[in-house]
Write a structure and sequence with these properties.
- The complex is a heterodimer of chains A (about 325) and B (about 290).
- Chain A folds into two domains: about 10-170, Thiamin diphosphate (ThDP)-binding fold, Pyr/PP domains (Rossmann fold, 3-Layer(aba) Sandwich), CATH 3.40.50; about 190-320, 3-Layer(aba) Sandwich (Rossmann fold), CATH 3.40.50.
- Chain A contains twelve helices and twelve strands.
- Chain A has helices at about 15-25, 45-50, 60-70, 85-90, 90-100, 125-130, 145-155, 205-215, 235-245, 260-275, 295-300, 305-320, and strands at about 30-35, 55, 75-80, 105-110, 140, 160-165, 190, 195-200, 225, 230, 250-255, 280-285.
- In chain A, the strands form two sheets. A seven-stranded mixed beta sheet of chain A has the order 2-1-3-4-6-5-10, sandwiched between helices.
- In chain A, helix 10 links the parallel strand 11 and strand 12 (about 280-285).
- The longest helix of chain A has 15 residues, at about 15-25.
- Mean pLDDT of chain A is about 95; it is low at about 1-10.
- The radius of gyration of chain B is 18 Å and the shape is globular.
- In chain B, helix 1 (about 15-35) runs antiparallel to helix 2 (about 40-60).
- Chain B has a five-stranded parallel beta sheet, with helices on both faces.
- The model of chain B has no long low-confidence stretch (mean pLDDT about 95).
- Classes of the chains: A alpha/beta (about 325), B alpha/beta (about 290).
- The interface of A and B includes residues 61, 66 and 70 of A.
């Protein structure tokens, strides 16, 4: 049974990322960190390796273009920032300067989903759709800070770019005990096993999916939870296996637009492979520019909170 | 240890030799333009031809037989639509065969296309084409050189039109902040966009003053005067210096072919056999004027 608990601010995704980058900076003398003025997590790296740290100020486009220039010269640049801005203001730089020549630039940031209460300018809700559309890009979404550190470490060996989406550091959760799962980019994690239905999710909503499964477990339902933290390349074999092992009953839950993110990725696999399902429901952000509120409040308001998740699972369980 | 290492096997050219090379480059540009069925960005190729000649045959410390040498100067064509001018300049410098460019340009599977692709064409330093992207990449390369203690320079050629992109000015600030004296930008100031004259669309003047106010070392030059361009190269600040340099090259779009000069119709185009003959004759007449 996975352990779900909050480690608190000191072990937020941001600080784990910060410590991991500082460690990796010692191991890789060609590792750089770049930020458009969102560099709090890079403090340790900056103090250890000031000659490999660049803060360009509030200028997302040059943060990515500069990273491409560094990568052309054999360096491994990690660009850290807020995803609503990196994924959109610098989208063309990511596409044409990084993905086109397939450079090993890592893009990592926070504020994926309706988190942080900044309003719609500050929510990255379409970022995964944009990033998944880019040839050569690997796309991940992670809530567990320890896992985010693992993925960053794994990404050092990759020859192409990767996008790592985090929520907001402070509220992130440690979902898995170290060593509990074999975590590999491109492979989904069976966060909880079950045989009546599968809920696929990623990032900040994994904890919510586990809670829903737990609640329904107490009522005698066996719900599988897949942490599909890699959206691209998608683990199509796991999707196919879940269809056959859990009665073809799927719920997809995500803190992203309901169309264009993980649900769409999974629907593509279902269509391409001709997988037969009994029921498919998607829970995510509808076509609105959301207003203000707490993370949970917004999920409840827009129909992908805990109660809605439990209801959706009940519906797919009841489907004939 | 501190001086840069010369990679070039080519002797330093005289101004007269460089003028001949620029003439040959223009001839080859017209020949390609007359033998390719599609449009070539001939106007901007001709405006930047003298700049690329002085770079590839005088300024850049490069060796076409050793393209990955870490000590080489880097060259980024931010105005990627002048790719043909770069390909031919590189061919004349020994990187490629001009005949290969003519034979395959724009064809399926060719490495020579409308905008340069690093992945497909060895010797190209960065994939460009979308305007406003080259200078930020050049800043990253110059920053890397500084961190590694490398003494080479990073040269970037921009069009004046693309400096309407905000990303250029983000890069200008980043370069100044990082004190990248090893970065040298040449702006092909031909005063024309695709469909009109730049000042009618966006006021770029005071142009040199804009760059100066961003903290760059600035110099203005006649971008078709080889003697002046050579002088600029000879007097570049040391790559150890702390200010990036921009050379504002006043140029004429379509330079060398009278019916193309400052003519909006010749941003891009193709030449039929008759037009090619006319263009070659026009080019030749400029040479007679110069040598008279």
């Amino acid at each position: 049974m996975p352990v779900t608990f909050t480690f608190g601010e000191w072990l937020s995704a941001r600080s784990v990322i910060g410590s991991t980058l500082a460690e990796l900076g010692g191991e890789y003398d060609n590792l750089w960190t770049i930020t458009p003025e969102i560099g709090a997590t890079l403090g340790e790296f900056r103090s250890l390796y000031p000659d490999r740290f660049v803060d360009v100020g509030i200028a997302e486009q040059v943060s990515i273009g500069l990273a491409a220039g560094l990568a052309y010269e054999g360096n491994i640049p990690v660009v850290s920032g807020m995803l609503p801005f990196l994924s959109m203001r610098a989208l063309e730089q990511i596409r044409s300067d990084v993905c086109y020549p397939n450079l090993p630039v890592k893009i990592i940031g926070t504020h994926g989903g309706l988190v942080g209460n900044g309003g719609s300018t500050h929510y990255a809700v379409e970022d995964l759709a944009l990033m998944c559309a880019l040839t050569n890009m690997t796309v991940t979404s992670i809530a567990d800070p320890l896992m985010a550190g693992d993925i960053l470490r794994q990404s050092m060996k990759m020859s192409g770019p990767i996008y790592i989406r985090l929520g907001v550091g402070k509220s992130d959760m440690v979902l898995y005990e170290p060593g509990q799962h074999d975590i590999q980019i491109g492979k989904g994690i069976v966060a909880r096993d079950g045989y009546d239905a599968t809920i696929f999710t990623h990032g900040t909503t994994v904890a919510q999916a586990l809670e829903a499964a737990e609640t329904l477990g107490a009522l005698g339902h066996s719900i599988r939870v897949i942490d599909m933290f890699t959206l691209k390349p998608i683990d199509a074999d796991l999707i196919e296996r879940c269809a056959s092992e859990t009665g073809g009953r799927f719920v997809v839950l995500e803190d992203h637009l309901a169309y264009g993110g993980l649900a769409s990725r999974i629907a593509d696999v279902i269509a391409d492979r001709g997988i037969h399902l009994t029921a498919f429901e998607r829970l995510g952000i509808p076509q609105v520019y959301a207003g203000f509120g707490g993370d949970e409040e917004l999920r409840d308001k827009y129909g992908y909170g805990l109660t809605s998740t439990i209801s959706a699972i009940m519906r797919v369980l009841a489907a004939k | 240890m501190s001086t840069s290492i010369s990679l070039s096997s080519e002797p330093k050219h005289t101004v007269a030799e460089l003028e001949d090379l620029a003439y040959e480059l223009r001839e080859k540009l017209l020949y390609l333009c007359g033998n390719y069925e599609g449009a070539v960005h001939i106007g901007g190729d001709l405006s930047v031809a003298d700049i690329l000649t002085v770079l590839y045959h005088y300024g850049l410390n490069v060796d076409p037989t050793d393209i990955a040498n870490p000590n080489r100067d880097r060259f980024i064509l931010s105005k990627g639509h002048a790719a043909v001018c770069m390909y031919i300049s590189m061919a004349m410098r020994g990187f490629f065969e001009f005949d290969d460019i003519v034979a395959t340009y724009g064809q399926l599977g060719s490495a020579y296309g409308m905008h340069p692709c690093k992945v497909q064409l060895r010797g190209v330093e960065a994939s460009t084409g979308s305007l406003g992207h080259g200078l930020p990449i050049a800043v990253g390369m110059a920053k890397s050189a500084r961190q590694k203690g490398e003494k080479h320079r990073v040269f970037c050629v921009l069009g004046d039109g693309e400096t309407g992109e905000g990303s250029i000015w983000e890069a200008a600030m980043a370069a100044r902040s990082a004190q990248l004296g090893n970065l040298v930008a040449f702006v092909d100031r031909n005063h024309q966009l695709m469909t009109g004259f730049s000042e009618d669309r966006v006021v770029l003047e005071p142009y040199l003053g804009k760059w100066a106010s961003f903290g760059w070392n600035t110099v203005s030059v006649d971008g078709h005067n080889m003697n002046d361009l050579v002088n600029i190269i000879d007097n570049l600040p040391s790559s150890d210096s702390t200010r990036p340099t921009v050379v504002i090259c006043e140029t004429i779009k379509g330079k060398g072919v009278d019916f193309m000069e400052r003519n909006i119709a010749w941003h891009a185009g193709s030449l039929g056999a008759a037009d090619l003959e006319r263009a070659m004759a026009a080019l030749e007449s400029t040479r007679k004027v110069v040598s008279a």
